[in-house]
Design goal:
This protein is an alpha+beta fold and 674 residues long. The strands form seven sheets. A five-stranded antiparallel sheet has the order 6-5-9-8-7, sandwiched between helices. The longest helix has 26 residues. InterPro entries: AAA+_ATPase, AAA_lid_NorR, Homeodomain-like_sf, HPr-like, HPr-like_sf, HTH_TyrR, P-loop_NTPase, PAS.
Length: 674
């Protein structure tokens, strides 16, 4: 059972160092007499410190007039607790006639501290409030190359400018995990001010030499990168490549080799190369790289095969065997012509997409409206500024957000997506910020939120306009402070997240109505990317159809399909309220219903077929034969529609028709061509 005694500290300086030394001395005597361990704690505190050591007592920072509690859980400790409490409760006038013993304790603690400082492997620098160095341990000497006798008593920034020691004293903030270079060495530092009674009385810098770790990390990274590049090269070349060891057993085959000779890669490993081609003679000159072998397959194809020795440290380790189809050489002329055409095409595409990061290459389309939007997104990827992606549902907002992440400096960090409309408002906070164990019923363990998971990378907040105002306020604080608090938590968690938001909601109108916060809008709307709807980029429909047919064919193992011209025309003249997502669904349905290698208009929904009939009727009225001439409005609509199809943007269509882009935009609205 615990024995306790409460007293009020009456010394004007509280439990300062000398008083703490007196208490430690008395505690050691009482503990020895009554065979117990004595502790001191503040009132209402669960944890105490041992009374027989100076540093823990000083660290309590007990002030004059403050009530403390002496306690012990050992049996027979009542008298010891009472005696020490009585000693602590003495008035300042009482003299303690053990000055020599007290000084001895202080000296022992000082020497012990110095011994600890010198024995640790990390560099340690301590300074006073004026930036004067008073501690510079042995490890600091070894890492910096500066002798303690040369720097102690002098300004630290004059000797170690990279550490910015004066900034530490002025900022009053800790700086942890910083990396600096001192000479040829890399160090990681933790800098902390020493604050007493809200005043900075000095600072401490602890640093560790990580040069060796940096070198090992770089070497490991280089080896991994080299291996990955090597594997990619082997798998992408047209030649069949096979590697064998000194016993002529196969250790590796690439995909072209398997395809050429119709051999299963996993079945040929560890087998001798002679077993794969039993009719061929592989002599020593072949493995020495001095002769080649021409072999034929059962389907009449011919291949030339040669081997190159692998020498490591002047020792033979095996061979690289390369096989090439002879019939391929006859096709080179045709391929050169085809490649020249492709080169010309790529040059034209490159001119259109100049300035776009390669991370945007997987976004299908070459219309002017789309390229303009992607150019803005590509520029946004160069910084960590918040991005707001606007556009109708199905225009590919998340696809663009992922491309911005891949193109930025955080590409190797997490990308975490969150649909704000898909989560009930009462659960959204826990999804975004996480919760602590026991925060509410069912919280059996702690959970990290999306922001915490995305720290260092990017978080994508889709449908931000559907977030309720209470969550908007909490999100705004997170964006401003760059820190979160889990539900049920009391300690803020620092985060480093790049925010990309997306919405198809009219945020400006919502701000007028009061359903969306203006301050959050301006915080998110640093860079705006406006994605055009599909009806404004109909020239991209053939490219998208080709992409989706190939994608769906692979997904469901269906034969590749092409699309009939009348079906494609019906798609091009449809207004697509569901945008690219609706187009993909139409192609998927058409391929599923098609009974052959073509998607016809009969395989598309009936409303597209009816629209195609209306189009034929409208085009028929444009005939100049007889009296069935089009009206001026019909002809104007047709001209603007054709110009937009051909040029893809209001500006270029206006230039072609001799009109400005505002006029084209108004006419397109009038005739519902957007």
């Amino acid at each position: 059972m615990e024995k306790t005694q409460r007293i009020i500290i009456k010394n004007k300086n509280g439990l300062h160092t000398r008083v703490a030394a007196m208490v430690a001395r008395q505690s050691q005597k009482f503990e020895k007499i009554w065979d117990c361990q004595l502790y001191l704690r503040r009132i209402n505190s669960q944890e105490g410190v041992p009374c027989n050591s100076v540093l823990p007592l000083v660290s309590l920072k007990v002030k004059n007039g403050e009530m403390v509690e002496v306690y012990s859980s050992d049996s027979g400790s009542e008298e010891a607790v009472f005696r020490l409490a009585s000693f602590l409760g003495q008035t300042p006038e009482l003299e303690i006639p053990e000055t020599e013993a007290i000084d001895s304790i202080l000296q022992e603690n000082t020497l012990a501290s110095e011994k600890i400082f010198e024995s640790i492997n990390n560099g340690l620098i301590a300074m006073d409030s004026n930036g004067i160095i008073n501690i510079f341990n042995r490890a600091a000497e070894e890492i910096t190359g500066i002798k303690a006798k040369d720097i102690i008593g002098k300004k630290g920034d004059e000797w170690v400018p990279n550490f910015n020691l004066n900034d530490l004293l002025h900022s009053k903030c800790e700086n942890l995990g910083l990396k600096h270079k001192i000479g040829n060495k890399w160090v990681i530092t933790n800098k902390s001010p020493i604050i007493v009674d809200e005043e900075v009385v000095g600072g401490v810098v602890v640093f560790q030499d990580i040069s060796q770790l940096e070198e090992l990390s770089w070497e490991l990274h280089s080896v991994k990168e080299l291996k990955e590049k090597f594997n990619n090269i082997l798998e992408t070349v047209d030649d069949g490549i096979c590697m064998i060891n000194r016993c002529r057993e196969i250790t590796y085959v690439n995909h072209p080799f398997v395809k050429m000779f119709k051999k299963e890669g996993t079945r040929v490993l560890t087998r001798k190369i002679q077993e794969l081609f039993p009719k061929e003679k592989f002599g020593d000159p072949f493995f020495a790289g001095k002769e080649e072998i021409i072999l034929s397959t059962t389907d009449g194809r011919e291949f030339i095969m040669h081997a190159r020795p692998i020498m490591i440290d002047a020792k033979f380790r095996g061979n690289v065997v390369v096989a090439r189809e002879l019939t391929e050489i006859a096709k080179l002329a045709d391929r050169i012509e085809l490649l020249s055409q492709k080169t010309q095409y790529l040059q034209e595409e490159l001119a259109k997409k100049e300035g776009l990061n390669q991370s945007f290459d997987n976004i299908i389309g070459k219309s002017g409206a789309l390229i303009e939007s992607l150019t803005v997104a590509s520029k946004a990827a160069r910084t960590d500024a918040a991005v707001l992606i606007r556009g109708e549902s199905g225009t590919g907002k998340e696809l663009v957000a992922r491309a911005i992440h891949r193109a930025g400096a955080r590409s190797d960090k997490p990308f975490v997506g969150m649909n704000c409309a898909a989560i009930p408002s009462n659960l959204l906070e826990s999804e975004l910020f996480g919760y602590e164990k026991g925060a509410f019923t069912g919280a059996y363990k702690e959970k990290r939120g999306k922001f915490e998971i995305a720290s260092g990378g990017t978080i994508f907040l889709d449908e931000i306009g559907d977030m309720d105002k209470a969550m908007q306020a909490k999100l705004l604080r997170v964006l401003q402070e760059q820190e979160i608090e889990r539900i049920g938590g009391v300690k803020p968690i620092r985060i480093d997240v790049r925010v990309i938001a997306a919405t198809n909601s009219p945020l400006e109108a919502m701000m007028q109505e009061g359903s969306f916060r203006r301050d959050l809008y301006y915080r998110l709307n640093v860079i705006t990317v406006m994605l055009p709807p599909l009806r404004q980029r109909k020239g991209d429909i053939p490219l998208l159809v080709e992409y989706f047919t190939e994608k769906i064919s692979k997904k469901y193992d269906l034969p590749k399909c092409a699309i009939r011209k009348d079906a494609l025309t019906a798609l091009e003249n449809y207004h697509f309220p569901g945008n690219v997502r609706e187009l993909e669904n139409l192609i998927e349905g058409g391929m599923t219903l098609s009974n052959n290698e073509w998607i016809t208009i009969a395989d598309l929904p009936a409303y597209l077929c009816d629209q195609g009939s209306d189009l034929n009727c409208r085009e028929k009225t444009f005939s100049s034969d007889g009296d069935d001439l089009p009206t001026f409005a019909e002809m104007e609509r047709w001209l603007i529609e054709q110009a937009l199809k051909k040029h893809g943007s209001f500006r270029k269509a206006g230039q072609a028709l001799g009109l400005d882009h505002k006029t084209i935009s108004k006419k397109a609205d009038k005739y519902q061509l957007k």
